[in-house]
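Give me C-alpha coordinates for this 332-residue protein.
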Amino acid sequence: MTARVACIGTGFMAGKHLAALASFDDVDVVAVADPVVDRARAVADDLGARAYEDGLELLATEELDAVWMCVPPFAHGALERAAIARDLPFFVEKPLAHDLETATTIAEELSDRGLLAAVGYHWRYLDVVERVAEHCRELPPHLVTGYWLDSTPPVAWWSQRSSSGGQVIEQTTHLFDLARLLVGEVERVWADELVVAGTDPGPDAPVPLVATAQLRFRSGCLGAVSSARTLPARHRVGLHLVGDGYAVELAESAIVDHELRITDGSGTTVERSDQDPVAAEDRAFLDAVLGRGDDVRAPYAEAIRSHALAWAADVSAREGRPVDVTPVGVHA
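Here you go.
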Protein backbone atom coordinates (compact mmCIF):
# COMPACT_ATOMS: atom_id res chain seq x y z
CA MET A 1 0.00 0.00 0.00
CA THR A 2 1.17 3.52 -0.83
CA ALA A 3 0.17 6.18 1.68
CA ARG A 4 -1.21 9.44 0.31
CA VAL A 5 0.03 12.24 2.55
CA ALA A 6 0.18 16.03 2.63
CA CYS A 7 2.14 18.65 4.55
CA ILE A 8 0.74 21.92 5.83
CA GLY A 9 3.64 24.35 6.09
CA THR A 10 6.75 24.44 3.91
CA GLY A 11 9.29 26.07 6.23
CA PHE A 12 12.49 24.68 7.74
CA MET A 13 11.11 21.74 9.71
CA ALA A 14 8.58 20.93 7.00
CA GLY A 15 11.53 20.63 4.63
CA LYS A 16 13.13 18.00 6.85
CA HIS A 17 9.91 15.99 7.01
CA LEU A 18 9.23 16.30 3.29
CA ALA A 19 12.76 15.15 2.47
CA ALA A 20 12.20 12.06 4.60
CA LEU A 21 8.75 11.37 3.18
CA ALA A 22 9.99 11.75 -0.40
CA SER A 23 12.65 9.12 0.30
CA PHE A 24 10.13 6.43 1.30
CA ASP A 25 9.00 4.06 -1.46
CA ASP A 26 5.53 3.62 0.04
CA VAL A 27 4.63 7.32 0.28
CA ASP A 28 3.10 9.72 -2.21
CA VAL A 29 3.19 13.37 -1.14
CA VAL A 30 0.15 14.64 -3.02
CA ALA A 31 -0.25 18.19 -1.65
CA VAL A 32 1.37 20.96 0.38
CA ALA A 33 -0.02 24.20 1.77
CA ASP A 34 1.53 27.47 2.88
CA PRO A 35 0.29 31.08 2.98
CA VAL A 36 3.61 31.96 1.31
CA VAL A 37 2.19 30.87 -2.02
CA ASP A 38 5.36 31.07 -4.10
CA ARG A 39 7.18 28.82 -1.64
CA ALA A 40 4.29 26.35 -1.59
CA ARG A 41 4.29 26.19 -5.38
CA ALA A 42 8.04 25.69 -5.55
CA VAL A 43 7.93 22.86 -3.03
CA ALA A 44 4.92 21.28 -4.75
CA ASP A 45 6.64 21.42 -8.14
CA ASP A 46 9.67 19.60 -6.74
CA LEU A 47 7.45 16.87 -5.33
CA GLY A 48 4.96 16.62 -8.18
CA ALA A 49 2.24 17.68 -5.73
CA ARG A 50 -0.57 20.21 -5.65
CA ALA A 51 -0.08 23.55 -3.88
CA TYR A 52 -2.59 25.28 -1.63
CA GLU A 53 -2.50 28.63 0.13
CA ASP A 54 -4.85 27.46 2.90
CA GLY A 55 -4.31 24.31 4.94
CA LEU A 56 -8.01 24.01 5.72
CA GLU A 57 -8.80 24.01 2.01
CA LEU A 58 -6.24 21.26 1.50
CA LEU A 59 -7.85 19.16 4.24
CA ALA A 60 -11.31 19.70 2.78
CA THR A 61 -10.20 18.77 -0.75
CA GLU A 62 -7.62 15.99 -0.69
CA GLU A 63 -8.18 12.30 -0.02
CA LEU A 64 -5.39 11.44 2.42
CA ASP A 65 -4.12 8.71 4.69
CA ALA A 66 -2.22 11.15 6.93
CA VAL A 67 -1.16 14.77 7.14
CA TRP A 68 1.88 16.55 8.58
CA MET A 69 1.31 19.92 10.28
CA CYS A 70 4.46 22.06 10.43
CA VAL A 71 3.00 25.46 11.23
CA PRO A 72 3.86 28.28 13.67
CA PRO A 73 2.60 27.86 17.25
CA PHE A 74 -0.22 30.41 16.83
CA ALA A 75 -1.63 28.52 13.82
CA HIS A 76 -2.64 25.40 15.76
CA GLY A 77 -6.23 24.54 16.62
CA ALA A 78 -8.42 24.76 13.54
CA LEU A 79 -6.16 22.50 11.48
CA GLU A 80 -6.15 19.74 14.08
CA ARG A 81 -9.91 19.98 14.56
CA ALA A 82 -10.42 19.68 10.80
CA ALA A 83 -8.26 16.54 10.70
CA ILE A 84 -10.09 15.06 13.70
CA ALA A 85 -13.44 15.73 12.03
CA ARG A 86 -12.25 13.61 9.08
CA ASP A 87 -10.72 10.87 11.29
CA LEU A 88 -7.42 11.70 9.60
CA PRO A 89 -4.24 10.70 11.48
CA PHE A 90 -1.81 13.59 11.78
CA PHE A 91 1.76 14.34 12.73
CA VAL A 92 2.31 17.75 14.31
CA GLU A 93 5.58 19.55 14.92
CA LYS A 94 6.20 20.88 18.41
CA PRO A 95 5.16 23.02 20.11
CA LEU A 96 1.56 21.88 20.20
CA ALA A 97 0.37 25.48 20.40
CA HIS A 98 1.41 28.89 21.74
CA ASP A 99 -0.75 28.25 24.80
CA LEU A 100 -1.95 25.31 26.89
CA GLU A 101 -5.71 25.61 26.40
CA THR A 102 -5.61 24.94 22.65
CA ALA A 103 -3.44 21.85 23.04
CA THR A 104 -5.53 20.51 25.93
CA THR A 105 -8.71 20.82 23.89
CA ILE A 106 -7.12 18.96 20.97
CA ALA A 107 -5.83 16.23 23.30
CA GLU A 108 -9.31 15.70 24.72
CA GLU A 109 -10.88 15.50 21.26
CA LEU A 110 -8.23 13.01 20.13
CA SER A 111 -8.81 10.87 23.21
CA ASP A 112 -12.57 10.87 22.67
CA ARG A 113 -12.10 9.89 19.03
CA GLY A 114 -9.29 7.36 19.57
CA LEU A 115 -7.41 8.93 16.65
CA LEU A 116 -3.68 8.45 16.03
CA ALA A 117 -1.59 11.63 16.32
CA ALA A 118 2.17 11.96 16.80
CA VAL A 119 4.35 14.91 17.83
CA GLY A 120 7.85 15.89 16.72
CA TYR A 121 9.91 15.29 19.86
CA HIS A 122 12.47 13.62 17.62
CA TRP A 123 15.27 13.20 20.22
CA ARG A 124 13.27 10.21 21.48
CA TYR A 125 14.37 8.29 18.37
CA LEU A 126 18.13 8.65 18.94
CA ASP A 127 20.06 5.55 19.96
CA VAL A 128 22.19 7.67 22.31
CA VAL A 129 19.02 8.77 24.12
CA GLU A 130 17.89 5.15 24.42
CA ARG A 131 21.25 4.32 26.01
CA VAL A 132 20.93 7.16 28.52
CA ALA A 133 17.39 6.05 29.38
CA GLU A 134 18.67 2.55 30.17
CA HIS A 135 21.48 4.05 32.27
CA CYS A 136 18.99 6.19 34.22
CA ARG A 137 16.76 3.21 34.91
CA GLU A 138 19.70 1.43 36.53
CA LEU A 139 21.15 4.48 38.31
CA PRO A 140 18.56 7.27 38.68
CA PRO A 141 20.03 10.78 38.46
CA HIS A 142 19.96 13.24 41.37
CA LEU A 143 20.58 16.39 39.33
CA VAL A 144 19.61 17.54 35.84
CA THR A 145 20.86 20.70 34.12
CA GLY A 146 19.72 21.73 30.66
CA TYR A 147 20.62 24.58 28.33
CA TRP A 148 19.35 25.93 25.02
CA LEU A 149 21.87 28.60 24.01
CA ASP A 150 21.00 29.97 20.60
CA SER A 151 20.29 32.92 18.33
CA THR A 152 16.90 34.50 17.62
CA PRO A 153 15.26 32.79 14.62
CA PRO A 154 14.72 35.27 11.75
CA VAL A 155 11.04 34.57 11.07
CA ALA A 156 8.83 37.51 12.12
CA TRP A 157 6.39 35.56 14.31
CA TRP A 158 9.08 33.97 16.50
CA SER A 159 10.19 37.04 18.46
CA GLN A 160 6.65 37.92 19.63
CA ARG A 161 5.44 35.99 22.65
CA SER A 162 1.83 36.12 21.49
CA SER A 163 2.78 34.29 18.29
CA SER A 164 5.47 31.80 19.31
CA GLY A 165 4.74 31.38 23.00
CA GLY A 166 8.37 32.22 23.71
CA GLN A 167 11.66 30.34 23.52
CA VAL A 168 10.82 28.05 26.43
CA ILE A 169 7.66 26.81 24.71
CA GLU A 170 8.93 26.92 21.13
CA GLN A 171 12.45 25.47 21.54
CA THR A 172 13.40 24.46 25.07
CA THR A 173 10.35 22.21 25.22
CA HIS A 174 12.65 19.55 23.68
CA LEU A 175 14.74 19.59 26.88
CA PHE A 176 11.69 19.40 29.12
CA ASP A 177 10.55 16.41 27.10
CA LEU A 178 13.95 14.74 27.44
CA ALA A 179 14.00 15.41 31.18
CA ARG A 180 10.57 13.79 31.58
CA LEU A 181 11.62 10.82 29.45
CA LEU A 182 14.85 10.21 31.39
CA VAL A 183 13.96 11.26 34.94
CA GLY A 184 10.17 11.22 35.24
CA GLU A 185 7.46 13.73 35.99
CA VAL A 186 8.07 17.15 37.52
CA GLU A 187 5.95 18.23 40.47
CA ARG A 188 7.01 21.88 40.83
CA VAL A 189 8.75 24.53 38.74
CA TRP A 190 10.02 27.98 39.75
CA ALA A 191 11.28 30.15 36.89
CA ASP A 192 12.52 33.63 36.10
CA GLU A 193 13.34 35.56 32.94
CA LEU A 194 15.08 38.67 31.64
CA VAL A 195 12.93 40.73 29.30
CA VAL A 196 13.98 43.25 26.68
CA ALA A 197 14.76 46.55 28.40
CA GLY A 198 12.01 49.16 28.17
CA THR A 199 9.24 46.77 27.12
CA ASP A 200 6.01 46.29 29.01
CA PRO A 201 5.07 42.73 29.98
CA GLY A 202 1.99 41.61 28.12
CA PRO A 203 0.75 39.34 25.36
CA ASP A 204 2.47 41.39 22.62
CA ALA A 205 5.81 41.68 24.44
CA PRO A 206 9.00 40.41 22.77
CA VAL A 207 10.26 36.97 23.73
CA PRO A 208 12.53 37.25 26.83
CA LEU A 209 16.26 37.39 26.22
CA VAL A 210 17.00 34.61 28.70
CA ALA A 211 15.01 32.41 31.07
CA THR A 212 15.79 29.77 33.66
CA ALA A 213 13.63 27.25 35.50
CA GLN A 214 14.27 25.23 38.64
CA LEU A 215 12.58 21.83 38.69
CA ARG A 216 11.69 19.37 41.43
CA PHE A 217 10.93 15.91 40.11
CA ARG A 218 8.61 13.47 41.86
CA SER A 219 11.62 11.16 42.28
CA GLY A 220 13.36 13.81 44.40
CA CYS A 221 15.80 14.73 41.61
CA LEU A 222 16.48 18.46 41.24
CA GLY A 223 16.89 20.27 37.94
CA ALA A 224 17.55 23.56 36.21
CA VAL A 225 16.89 24.35 32.56
CA SER A 226 18.02 27.64 30.98
CA SER A 227 17.36 29.31 27.64
CA ALA A 228 19.04 32.18 25.79
CA ARG A 229 18.38 33.71 22.37
CA THR A 230 21.14 36.34 22.44
CA LEU A 231 23.92 34.59 20.49
CA PRO A 232 24.93 35.11 16.84
CA ALA A 233 24.34 31.39 16.14
CA ARG A 234 23.49 28.20 17.98
CA HIS A 235 26.13 27.52 20.61
CA ARG A 236 24.97 24.39 22.40
CA VAL A 237 21.79 22.55 23.28
CA GLY A 238 21.80 19.73 25.76
CA LEU A 239 21.08 18.01 29.03
CA HIS A 240 23.45 16.97 31.85
CA LEU A 241 22.45 14.23 34.29
CA VAL A 242 24.42 13.54 37.47
CA GLY A 243 23.98 10.49 39.70
CA ASP A 244 25.97 8.26 42.01
CA GLY A 245 29.41 8.03 40.44
CA TYR A 246 28.56 9.34 36.99
CA ALA A 247 27.76 12.34 34.82
CA VAL A 248 26.07 12.09 31.42
CA GLU A 249 25.75 14.80 28.78
CA LEU A 250 23.45 14.63 25.74
CA ALA A 251 24.11 17.59 23.47
CA GLU A 252 24.14 19.07 20.00
CA SER A 253 25.95 22.15 18.74
CA ALA A 254 26.74 24.03 15.55
CA ILE A 255 29.45 21.46 14.74
CA VAL A 256 28.09 18.23 16.26
CA ASP A 257 24.61 16.85 15.57
CA HIS A 258 24.14 14.58 18.59
CA GLU A 259 26.78 13.61 21.10
CA LEU A 260 26.79 11.49 24.25
CA ARG A 261 29.46 11.84 26.96
CA ILE A 262 29.54 9.54 29.96
CA THR A 263 32.00 10.14 32.78
CA ASP A 264 32.31 7.54 35.52
CA GLY A 265 34.97 5.69 37.48
CA SER A 266 36.54 4.34 34.29
CA GLY A 267 36.96 7.74 32.63
CA THR A 268 35.04 9.55 29.89
CA THR A 269 33.58 7.94 26.79
CA VAL A 270 32.23 9.90 23.84
CA GLU A 271 29.78 8.67 21.23
CA ARG A 272 28.42 10.63 18.29
CA SER A 273 25.28 9.69 16.40
CA ASP A 274 24.77 10.18 12.68
CA GLN A 275 21.12 9.11 12.84
CA ASP A 276 18.35 11.15 11.27
CA PRO A 277 15.76 11.17 14.08
CA VAL A 278 13.26 13.17 12.00
CA ALA A 279 13.20 10.46 9.34
CA ALA A 280 12.94 7.84 12.08
CA GLU A 281 9.89 9.43 13.69
CA ASP A 282 8.25 9.90 10.29
CA ARG A 283 8.84 6.24 9.41
CA ALA A 284 7.44 5.09 12.75
CA PHE A 285 4.31 7.22 12.35
CA LEU A 286 3.73 5.99 8.80
CA ASP A 287 4.13 2.38 9.87
CA ALA A 288 1.52 2.97 12.57
CA VAL A 289 -0.85 4.59 10.06
CA LEU A 290 -0.39 1.64 7.69
CA GLY A 291 -0.83 -0.94 10.44
CA ARG A 292 2.76 -2.15 10.20
CA GLY A 293 4.15 -1.06 13.54
CA ASP A 294 3.59 0.51 16.92
CA ASP A 295 6.63 2.69 17.66
CA VAL A 296 5.13 6.17 17.99
CA ARG A 297 7.21 7.41 20.93
CA ALA A 298 5.55 10.80 21.34
CA PRO A 299 1.80 10.36 20.83
CA TYR A 300 -0.18 13.54 21.42
CA ALA A 301 -1.36 12.38 24.84
CA GLU A 302 2.26 11.97 25.95
CA ALA A 303 3.57 15.10 24.26
CA ILE A 304 1.03 17.35 25.93
CA ARG A 305 2.63 16.54 29.29
CA SER A 306 5.92 17.99 28.04
CA HIS A 307 4.07 20.98 26.60
CA ALA A 308 2.29 21.48 29.93
CA LEU A 309 5.64 21.46 31.76
CA ALA A 310 7.11 24.08 29.43
CA TRP A 311 3.92 26.11 29.87
CA ALA A 312 4.22 25.88 33.68
CA ALA A 313 7.81 27.18 33.46
CA ASP A 314 6.66 30.07 31.29
CA VAL A 315 3.78 30.94 33.64
CA SER A 316 6.12 30.83 36.64
CA ALA A 317 8.56 33.23 34.98
CA ARG A 318 5.84 35.64 33.86
CA GLU A 319 4.03 35.67 37.19
CA GLY A 320 7.02 35.39 39.51
CA ARG A 321 5.76 32.44 41.54
CA PRO A 322 6.31 28.69 41.85
CA VAL A 323 3.86 26.58 39.85
CA ASP A 324 2.73 23.08 40.73
CA VAL A 325 2.72 20.89 37.61
CA THR A 326 -0.63 19.17 37.61
CA PRO A 327 -1.05 16.03 35.51
CA VAL A 328 -2.88 16.56 32.24
CA GLY A 329 -6.06 14.49 32.36
CA VAL A 330 -5.47 12.53 29.16
CA HIS A 331 -3.80 9.13 29.23
CA ALA A 332 -1.34 7.96 26.60
